[in-house]
Amino acid sequence: MCDSACLHHFYYKHPPHSFLQKSRKSMFEVKDDSVAPLHALPQVGWSGEEVITAATKVLALGKYDWREGRLSGGAFSGKDDAFTQLLTKIYRLYALSNPLHSDIFPGVRKMEAEIVRMTLDLFQGDQDACGCMTTGGSESLLLALKAARDWSREVKGITEPEIVLCYTAHAGFDKGASLLDVKLRKVDMDPVTCKVDLRAMRRAITSNTVMLVASAPQYPHGIIDDVEGVASLGKARNIPVHVDCCMGGFLLPFMKAAGYPVTPFDFQVPGVTSISADTHKYGQAPKGSSVLMYRSHNYLHHQYFVTPNWPGGIYATHSVPGSRAGGLVAVCWASLLYLGFQGYTNATKAIIATARKLTQRLKEVPGVEIFGDPLTSIVAFNTTEVDILKVGDVLSGRGWHLNFLQYPSGLHVCLTGLHANDAFVDGLVHDLKEAITEIKNNPSTLKGVGKVYGTAAAIPDKALVGEAAKLFLQCYYDTLPDPA
Questions:
Q1: Does residue 321 carry a pLDDT above 60?
Q2: d(CA 188, CA 97)
Q3: Are residue 348 and residue 222 in the same domain, yes or no?
Q4: Are 163 and 209 in contact (CB under 8 A)?
Q5: Exposure winner among 228, 282, 355, 413, fewest CB in 10 A?
Q6: Where N6-(pyridoxal phosphate)lysine occurs along the chain (predicted)?
Q7: Residue 348: CATH number of its domain
Q8: b vs e for 44-78, b when ≥16 Cβ sit within 10 Å of the residue's Cβ?
Q9: Terminal CA-to-CA distance of the chain, rounded, Å?
Q10: Judgement on whether residues 14 and 108 belong to the same structural domain of the protein
């Protein structure tokens, strides 16, 4: 995923033939002269102290400090030093373990199974419910789609599979559909509620539909789709229904206990066949873990990959990787145990309270409009007073790293425990008001721009978005700047 401000103000300022060179130059502008790029192995290995010194310098690169609490999402933990120290100790214990070899590392297998079972319990899964761990939300969505595609091929004979989802559903579904050769049939959201338009979804269903999707919540606007409505459509037609709870996975199960009840979203809803929940977001585990759950093994079995005829032996895996980092399993397990139900409830209460307060304060700013009725941690907004993308530019200049939206344009804030305080709300609202005033007073100083998902990148010509993003990705692994 593109995730850098180095594309900011790029394409509309430079002719296409120079875009690659300009993008690479922007990459190197974040480098520090004291951190020389490495192009080959050192002839003699560095000492441990030298490695730590170099790593510390590299850590300081970039203009955003996530600890300041001005980053939308991105970092979901970090306030509790004791928790961080615990995770580093646990990872050290399991740093060299590999879940692929469960006979050699049975403890990691036990941890992984317990993570899945604990998460199933949160989502009202019964004894038939099952699941697996993945490396993140995108892999969870990919595997859920694979299971639905293969189940539909075996049970219903579908050979030209299609998935029906709202265009606000996560781009991970687009990636999965591309990799698995599944056709996407995207439908509109309701313009008022920002939920998936159920009537449009019903019309989009065909005899080739292998999955319906509900988001809880969806990423752009933080809105929870009508899960019961989508599940009802699927159940009536025997179509698998996936609830993408990657963002809300470790908020929604605790909201009732935190005093913020929500409509049903889990396996208690008839027709829901699979759910994804990211432990590395509000589960506060280090990046690299998610849980994918199924109502029964009837679906999970179609996720597996098995090849029995390889000369190297019988090769079978639950997920895309073969070897995986057992240390990530261990720290995820440790996170769940350390925080516990009460810890997650307390975190949820603080985050949701702050999100509700921010929503109310934003509504009081003249011209600011909130997308839908956000009930969880994401608050998205626009303004009728000035170009919202110009507002985003000004806020970026003031140290805020918000997420830019398109179709329609907007900004969103993904609140985490780092933001659960009045100072965050006061600071953002104050700077937002000043940004609007600044743009009104100087309307010609900024240019409206579009944004690529996950970046501060500006591309005015949407036909060029794909190619421009690929050029940026091409620069990602560069260590040498263009020759003069």
A1: yes
A2: 45
A3: no
A4: yes
A5: 228
A6: 281
A7: 3.90.1150.10
A8: eeeeeeeeeeeeeeeeeeeeeeeeebbbbbeebbe
A9: 29
A10: no
Asked if residues 285 and 63 have their Cβ atoms less than 8 Å apart, the reply is no
Identify whether 411 is part of a domain: yes
Query: Which residue's entry shows tokens 């199933």?
Result: 120
Quickly count: other Cβ atoms within 10 Å of residue 274's Cβ. 26
Q: Please say whether the beta carbons of 45 and 376 come within 8 A.
A: no
- pLDDT (tens digit per residue) in 178-231: 999 999 999 999 999 999 999 999 999 999 999 999 999 999 999 999 999 999
CA atoms within 13 A on the CB side of 291: 31
Q: Is 484 exposed, middle or buried (0-12, 13-18, 19+ CB in 10 A)?
A: exposed
Encoding tokens for residue 102? 């469960």
Residue type, 278: D
Bridge partners for 410 per DSSP: 405
Strand partners, 317: 305
- 380-438 pLDDT, tens digit per residue, is 999 999 989 889 989 988 889 899 998 899 999 999 998 888 999 999 999 999 999 99
| Sign (positive or negative) of CA dihedral 365, 371, 375, 377 | negative
Nearest residue to 252 (alpha-carbon basis) of 278, 272, 273, 233 = 278
Q: State the amino acid at position 280 in one-letter form.
A: H
Report DSSP state, residue 192: T
What is d(CA 450, CA 459) in angstroms, rounded to the nearest whole number? 5
Tokens at residue 113, please?
A: 């199974």
The CA angle 39-44-49, to the nearest 5 degrees, is: 90
> How do residues 123-179 score in pLDDT, each as one tens digit?
999 999 999 999 999 999 999 999 999 999 999 999 999 999 999 999 999 999 999
Give the mean pLDDT of 35-59.
Answer: 89
In whole angstroms, give the CA distance from residue 289 to residue 90.
15
Measured in whole angstroms, the distance separating CA 458 from the mean position of its chain's CA atoms is 21
Q: Is the Cβ–Cβ distance between 425 and 361 less than 8 Å?
A: yes
Summarize pLDDT for 415-429 with one digit per residue, the tens: 999 888 899 999 999
Q: How far apart are CA 211 and CA 142, in angstroms?
A: 12
Domain containing residue 132 = 90-338
